[in-house]
Write a structure and sequence with these properties.
66 residues, mainly alpha, 2 helices
Length: 66
């Protein structure tokens, strides 16, 4: 899983790729950019869910790990 800063960078790269595709009329490049952004957003969401699950687990266990 990637970290938030890496996902943010991937979102920016996707936006740049999408913009370049729009400017040049390259629909494939534009679609790749949108896809890259969607993947980064999904990775963000999965990371957030994992963090919340860990928090729930931590709150349910005793200090000695039971």
């Amino acid at each position: 899983m990637t970290d938030k800063s890496e996902n943010a960078m991937d979102k920016l790269k996707g936006k740049a790729k999408e913009a370049a595709g729009k400017m040049t009329g390259d629909r494939r490049k534009e679609a790749e950019g949108k896809s890259d952004q969607a993947k980064a957003k999904t990775d963000d969401a999965m990371g957030g869910a994992a963090d919340r699950a860990k928090g729930v687990k931590d709150s349910l266990t005793d200090d000695d790990g039971r």
